[in-house]
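To: structure desk
From: M.T.
Subject: fold request, one chain
Message: Could you run this one when you get a chance? Sequence is below, nothing fancy, just the single chain.
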Amino acid sequence: MDKGEIIERLKIIAEHAVHTVGERPFVMSLDDGIAVHEAIELLTNCPEIPDSWIPCSKKMPEEHEWIGTKKFGTTISDEVYVTFESPKGERFTRHLSFQNGKLPNFEQRTIDAFYKGSVPIAWKPEPKPWEGKVDGKAD
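Reply: Done. Structure tokens follow.
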């Protein structure tokens, strides 16, 4: 279910003070109604956050030049979450960058030290840091 579908379902809930949960009727309290409207507003105003993993076989993270490009001739991706799979079928996730479409040597050596022969199978961008306030104060 995507953000738009969630908003639509919340709007339907907000329109009806009485609805069923399973087989039983449920009367929404005023507090519940306010919470539903707040949830709709928050979802409407929040940016889309990709939540799906991207198979490495379909697309790799975009890369850009960095301080080592001239010296090493490499480009680097932003840090992403990467799911690996070992030859035994074990899966695990690490947070790292790619260089020239593959893992940097030191990252590959670290992975191999624990899960020899593991390969990256999917990745997803890291979310942007939260910009909210805590107790009315900026972080």
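Reply (cont.): The two ends are 31 Å apart (CA to CA). Let me know if you need anything else for the meeting.
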